[in-house]
Amino acid sequence: MIKIGIIGITGYTGEELLKILSKRSDVKIAGLYGRKSSQERDLKDIYPGFANLNLKVSPLDIEHAASNCDVVFLALPHAVAFEVVPALLEAGAKVIDLSADFRLKNPETYEKWYKVTHTAKKYINRAVYGLSELNDKEIKNASLIANPGCYPTSIILGCVPAIKNKFVDLKGIVVDSKSGISGAGRKATHEYFEKEHPNFRAYKIAGGHRHIPEIEQEFANLSGENTPISFTPHIIPVERGMLSTIYINLKQDIKTSDVIEKYKEFYKGRNFIKILDEDVMPSIKDIVNTNFCEIGIKIDERTKRIVIVSVIDNLVKGASGQAVQNMNLMFLLPETAVLI
Predict the structure, then answer these.
(1) pLDDT of residue 185
(2) Which H or E run includes 263?
(3) 309 near 264, Cβ under 8 Å?
(4) Residues involved in catalysis
(5) Model's pTM, two decimal places?
């Protein structure tokens, strides 16, 4: 029996984690913690749908979490995780951090993009980047997982086979991503549906989004090259789901059918990746509430570009589902446990 703790239960990702983990017979929810709670509350008062679990949500108590849990999920805002990770690790707990605090290997890059001082730098190199399909071997031996961001998950998974097969030019990559409003958090979601819905808008354009250095870091790790990208995120009038359209110049003539075969071969045996057949493109409705990533591919022969469309549920494969997938790997369990 794996004893589970969740710090930050009141956010979207905390709720999604509980939804997934509460279905399992091989785990025990040993601690639920609110970041700002000053007193203990019944879980049912926060989430009436979980009344049958008969659990309490406690104020944040790092010592209690460290001593009572085998693994602790951190569903916290950025710049908060490095305040609690050291104590959890030193007490022997495994940690899966859903924030960005340990994703970037260069702390100066983190401080530049997140505008805060990183106070747990010595733990950065202990963190394994938790993109399960690429780093499964390292994840199995890790004590600290830096769970990827939602945009990076959709984009990196869409690009890896093209980069590894070396038929694309990594200069001038353009990414256009659309996300359900839940990616901005619960408060922003409520404000959007009260004031904006059904608005559709771009935001943080021209290099303003904090996920850019994460994507560029992983592209550089894959290719050995500096790979700056042009990335524009958008908010669409749905609660959840994410679609990324990626444009990359080709270095050689290649047919769509051949690329699809290379993608299928690369992801062979990967339970949560679906490469679609030629002339079939993925849509958000096909992956909502699942841990799948669906990828469609088309070669634009006129412009000599590959167009890749990658879709995920931003709260599942883009956050909590991938975190549970990583937990399964860390404890040498079937990767798909409760996720399929």
Answers:
(1) 59
(2) helix 256-266
(3) no
(4) 150
(5) 0.93
